[in-house]
């Protein structure tokens, strides 16, 4: 959407809700976020309540522009500054030492804060008009599929959110890449919209620590996350129960006649298109009451790594 499409009355209303300590769901280029004033601990607590999110999982703080960075981050190492200059606004979150102004509930008691400037005119207009950084996780119930349209947010969070801004479908479709500067060497904690290849072209070799583990460095990297209700299997290891209704999540093409339903992520064989379609396709299959979803992996490079990461977590059901 263009800046000229912004409804200034709606933004003013959303901003006054934020300033009064309420929650507003808003679009970003990655996924929709559920936002509240990052400096208002009570408002942020409401986010955790609405999502059913465990308090050990910190939130990302969203800024309208770089001038707000010093309000939330106490130190910006040179490499972090380079990444900010190169990729903001955009799908990159930097984990930096936090200022005292950021309440503990935002960072789950960590002395670092995740921060990014989203590349979406509505998001930035909202943060700007609110005149405060906005803490926002993805606007889904904890552990479930992230929303890439306003309708997805309505479906899962509906009445509990004070206002939902509609900016159309998200362009990127998977969450931001998280790079932590908590230690001396930067490390990728979550694969996302900015690929490792592109990061490395900017700052050289970077470690990736985004695998699932019991105590993940980015708590959102829990082994089971982004999960549909229908059991999802990455194909290769599945067995076919006779008579079962199987949905097939294909990358480029699929043997349509064999399955009860098929979603194709990118007929053009394009990773950007596939990422933008991923969560919507998972939701559509999940809504069909299938016995199982079989998902094909994407090529393991570029955005394909983030797509495969989400598919593996969607497959790792813990409930
Ligand atoms: O694209 C995105 O990043 C979206 C949009 C709305 O900006 N947001 C998003 O938020 O994906 P959420 O809450 O679903 O995921 C945030 C991740 C979590 O895995 C959390 O553990 C990690 O960021 N995180 C936040 N602050 C952190 C910190 N100080 N240290 C390590 N990980 C952090
Ligand atoms: Mg999330």
Give me some keywords for this one:
binds magnesium ion, Rossmann fold, 2 domains, 319 residues, DHBP synthase, ten-stranded mixed beta sheet, binds threonylcarbamoyladenylate, globular, 10 helices, alpha/beta, single chain
Description of the molecule:
It contains ten helices and 14 strands. It has two domains: 3-74 and 97-170, DHBP synthase; 232-315, Rossmann fold. Helix 1 crosses helix 6 and helix 9 packs parallel to helix 10 (303-315). It has helices at residues 8-19, 41-51, 69-72, 78-87, 104-107, 121-130, 150-157, 196-203, 271-286, 303-315; strands spanning 24-26, 33-37, 60-62, 92-97, 112-116, 134-136, 163-164, 177-180, 187-190, 207-208, 232-234, 246-250, 261-264, 292-295. Helix 8 links the parallel strand 9 (187-190) and strand 10 (207-208). The strands form two sheets. The protein has a ten-stranded mixed beta sheet, sandwiched between helices. The chain has 319 residues and is α/β, with parallel strands linked by helices. The model has no long low-confidence stretch (mean pLDDT 92). Helices cover 30% and strands 17% of the residues. It binds threonylcarbamoyladenylate and magnesium ion. Threonylcarbamoyladenylate (TXA) binds next to strand 4, strand 5, strand 8 and strand 9. The site of magnesium ion (MG) has 4 residues, from loops.
